[in-house]
Amino acid sequence: MNPRITGAIAARVLTQLRRDHRTLAIMLVLPCLLISLLWWMFDDLPGDSFDRLGPALLAMFPFIVMFLVTSVTTLRERSGGTLERLLAMPMGKLDFLFGYALAFGIVAAVQSVAAVGISVGLLDLTIVGPVWLLTVVAVADAVLGSALGLFVSAFARTEFQAVQFMPALVIPQILLCGLFVPRDRLPDVLGSVSDVLPLSYAVDAMQHLTRSPATGEVWRDLAVVAAYAVAGLALGAATLRRQSP
């Protein structure tokens, strides 16, 4: 992998995103709007529902948005012939994948800073741990979504098929991550499945930051999320094709 080529790929993707205002709005504005909508829903109700659900959604929204955008964008590169032309140059698959991951990671950082800033600064989400660590976890979740999006794009022929991977890979993680039922109260089989899903650890990290100033468990969960992201990129490199199958 050549750092100069990787940086050039990342700069190219960022330039494309800057010109695509609708995609940029989905990536940067939509998570903030959805979190604000959730706060509005619970604002007049008794209890601390937003404090209970907010951290999990801060983990989920960047993951979901980046998964969708990355899988569709990568497939578009392949179906349009851009990927074939790029790989015909002196560039490896890892240069392409890490360039994309770097570009979307930068966007994810901006997205996460905005979402965390609105949640904590304007919507009064209760955070006991450091806010900067909350932002780091949100960025890691978004990068994980990008890595999985790069991976699944190799198995889709159309943008619609890329979106169809969401029910298979994303929705089960949402159901089992602890948002609806605490993970320790799930049936044994579902609990075991939850233990191997990366979004579970992202949500756990967010929830730890709302309950305790200790950060040891957060760093452990963050390491698991990062490992899944690296594995997703490695699998993406192994399955990356120049053209749609």
TrEMBL record:
List, alphabetically, the InterPro entries matched.
ABC-2_transporter_component, ABC2_TM, ABC2_TM_bact-type, ABC_2_transport
Q: Does the keyword Membrane apply?
A: yes
* Family designation: Belongs to the ABC-2 integral membrane protein family.
Q: Where are the transmembrane segments?
A: 24-42, 54-75, 96-120, 132-155, 162-181, 222-240
Example GO biological process: response to antibiotic
Instruction: Quote the protein name from its UniProt record.
Output: Transport permease protein
Give the top-rank taxon of the lineage listed in the UniProt record for this protein. Answer: Bacteria
Q: Which UniProt keywords apply?
A: Antibiotic resistance, Cell membrane, Membrane, Transmembrane, Transmembrane helix, Transport
* Annotated localization: Cell membrane
Give one Pfam family, short name only.
ABC2_membrane
Question: Which coarse location class describes where this protein primarily resides?
Answer: membrane
Topology with regard to the membrane?
Multi-pass membrane protein
Q: Does the keyword tRNA-binding apply?
A: no
Instruction: Indicate the segments forming the ABC transmembrane type-2 domain, all copies.
Output: 18-243
Q: What is the organism of origin for this protein?
A: Nocardioides humilatus
Recorded GO CC terms: ATP-binding cassette (ABC) transporter complex
GO MF terms held by the record: ABC-type transporter activity
